[in-house]
Amino acid sequence: MDLTVIWAFIIAFAVFAYVVMDGFDLGIGILFPTFRVGKGRNRAMNSIAPVWDGNETWLVLGGGGLFAAFPLAYAVILPATYPLIIAMLLGLVFRGVAFEYRWRDPAHQKFWDAAFFGGSLVAAMSQGMILGALLQGIKIDGRAYAGSWWDWLTPYTFLTGIGTVAGYALLGSTWLIWKLDGGAQAHARYVAFRAGIATIALMGAVSLYNITLNAEYAAHWLTAPQIYWVAPVPIITGLIAVSMLRAITKDRNSKPFWLAIALFLLGMAGLGVTIFPYVVPPGLTIWDAAAPERSQIFMLVGVAITMPLIIAYTVWAYWVFRGKVADEGYH
Fold first, then answer.
1. What does pTM read for this prediction?
2. What phi, psi does 223 have (nearest 5°)?
3. pLDDT at residue 65, rounded to an integer
4. In this structure, how many other beta carbons lie within 10 angstroms of the beta carbon of residue 198?
């Protein structure tokens, strides 16, 4: 049993849970200007009101897990992406403040709506660019970051940022298909189909770019015998994408959202195939960056206790608020 691999999967799970759960409420913020002022925006915001702050628990678990289990990776990634992390945190702060003050300060509701949109967009774009900065490689000298303040700013990171924005918009719109009805639901379907097309196209573009980005990435996908193991990933991704677009147009309620999650899961699996065993490409593997074994064991006990509790209260919260959203809130 390799504790380092176990910790890599724990952090990957936490990141995936955050991307899906905070992704759809960031997506609603990104789509906010497309909804009609008044009831349309109120219903969209009410659909995430009971769960949005709990969704960010997974960001804390993922970041804290990286710091605890892979401290060297944490020490390299942060200085390499400081501007993006600062922008992401400020975006999340503005989004959270706008969420609360929008109801308490109706005289400035337009300002808070703009802050909700802007904070969501900046946070999503920053998260996508952080991913791109990691995938394109980070310069390391010994055990420290050796690049400049602006190494993260490239056409590739801009592409991954736009792809993340489109993906979050897809998650947000499919969530609203599930939770709304009437004209608001019809508008969500309209937006979801276009966000789905954009997400699929950008996933394909990033995947092709990855192959040209690094010879080792290309080897993971295009050389035997690896190609026989990884070939099902793009094939299944294509089938899921087609099924999702059909579900959006066929008046399904929850199915588009679950298929969008499946699309993200396959995308993350593809990224795992691309990057493994590196935690900081091109030269820092998960074993190079791992904490001592005794530390990993100690932390694993804590995760074994806390993660089931987090999952349990998350499932309970979503079960309680499982209906459609009316003007005043959940039915």
1. 0.91
2. -110, 150
3. 82
4. 17
Q: How many domains does the chain have?
A: 1
Query: Roughly how many angstroms between the first and final C-alpha of the chain, as a whole number?
Result: 48
**Does 103 map to a domain?**
yes
Q: How far apart are CA 259 and CA 195, in angstroms?
A: 14
What is the band of 331 on the pLDDT scale with cuts at 50, 70, 90?
low
Q: 138-189: per-residue pLDDT in tens?
A: 888 877 888 788 888 899 999 999 999 999 999 999 999 998 888 888 888 9
Taking every pair of Cα atoms in the chain, the longest distance, rounded to a whole number of angstroms, is: 63
Query: What is the three-state SS of 181-237?
Result: CHHHHHHHHHHHHHHHHHHHHHHHHHHHHHHHHCHHHHHHHHCCCHHHHHCHHHHHH
CB-based contact 89:96 (threshold 8 Å): no
Q: Hunting for tokens 């065993």 — which residue is that? A: 277
Please work out, in degrees rounded to the nearest 5, the angle formed at the alpha carbon of residue 270 by the alpha carbons of 265 and 272: 95
Residue 102's domain comprises 11-330
**Per-residue CA distances from 91 to 14, 94, 111, 152, 296 (Å):** 20, 5, 15, 18, 32
pLDDT tens by residue, 111-138: 888 888 999 999 999 999 999 998 888 8
- Is 4 inside a domain boundary? no
